[in-house]
Structures are given as structure tokens and as C-alpha cells.
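User: Fold this; C-alpha cells only.

Assistant: Input:
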Amino acid sequence: MEVKVLGSGCANCNHTTALIEQVASEKGAAITLSKVQDIKDIMSYHVMSLPAVVIDGKVVHAGGIPGRDKVESWF
């Protein structure tokens, strides 16, 4: 499972990344997690609010830190 966190590297982006890592580890989910900070790459996903989360090419969240329940539902 390929997971990308789109964002500028702000605190919310970093918190989102850490939350995803923690939940995936707890669930035993095999993921490849990367951060996308290049604005052109971010724009290619057509999101207007950051941070955003993309799983296997599909935007599953945009704007703010996702709730733990939401992150758990991804895995």
C-alpha cells in the first residue's frame, strides 16, 4: 500500500505522517509512506486544503489532521 502525505512540512503535516505511521504499525499494515512537499506535485492531485493523504493514487483526506478513527479505517 502506497501512502503519501501532501503538505508543506508544517506541524499538521508532520503530525498526520506520525499518526499514519503509528496506526499502520499497530495494525501490522505494510505501507510505503512518503511526504510530497513540491507544490507542483501537490497540485497534480487537485487538493485545495493541506495536509492531504493519498492512498494508492486516490485522495482519501484533505484539510487538517485526520481523526484516528478515520486513519484506522484506511488499514
